[in-house]
Write a structure and sequence with these properties.
Blueprint lengths: L6 H26 L2 H9 L3 H29 L10 H33 L4 H32 L4 H31 L1
Helix pairs in contact: 1-6, 3-4, 3-5, 3-6, 4-5, 5-6
Length: 190
């Protein structure tokens, strides 16, 4: 357990993560503004409806995991190692399931909003896009989050100082990138 940290310690630990988050956020914005993304948005009615919810829930779902990991590390009930620990496995599995369920729910709500507002849309297409992007982002977010938190903790960093910016940035970058990939892949099938 960490002793009481000074404001300087918190700032020193959080600043590099915030700077990386800034750069990564600009990268996510570049993907979002790309010609390929504009084409994807135009080709799939409802993408702009689900995009903000999808990005927000990446942070919410995986932020909960980050908080759980941080608390477990501070309490000594989770070791900062990649082992088949029941608590760690359950937390990761629960986050994965939550992320996938929320992704499908977002697709259904986006379809309903689109259908009520414009009388159209393709539910199967939206669900397919959300399942693919949710799955890909979950795999990378889970592995990156657990790795960064564990490595940071072993190097003396307080996970509470890095989880917030890390999760929101990963959610934006992986969310936007894999949404574009999913639009393309589902477009090949449907």
């Amino acid at each position: 357990m960490y002793e009481r940290e000074s404001a300087w310690d918190v700032y020193r630990q959080a600043l590099p993560v915030i700077i990386v988050s800034l750069v990564a956020g600009l990268f996510a914005g570049t993907i979002l503004g790309s010609e390929a993304m504009r084409d994807g948005i135009e080709s799939v009615p409802g993408i702009l409806i689900l995009l903000p919810a999808f990005l927000a829930t990446r942070g919410g779902v995986y932020g909960s995991l980050g908080a759980r990991l941080s608390s477990g590390l501070h309490q000594g009930i989770i070791e900062p190692r990649f082992t088949l620990d029941r608590r760690l496995s359950n937390a990761v599995i629960a986050s994965f399931i939550n992320g996938m369920v929320v992704s499908v729910f977002i697709a259904i709500v986006a379809f309903l909003v689109l259908w009520i507002g414009a009388g159209g849309g393709n539910l199967l297409q939206l669900i397919g896009i959300m399942v693919v992007s949710g799955l890909l982002s979950a795999i990378l977010m889970l592995s990156t989050l657990v790795t960064v938190v564990f490595v940071g903790y072993r190097r003396g960093l307080d996970p509470d100082n890095i989880v917030g910016p890390l999760v929101t940035t990963l959610g934006d970058v992986f969310g936007v990138a894999f949404l574009l990939v999913a639009i393309y892949l589902v477009g090949l099938i449907l």
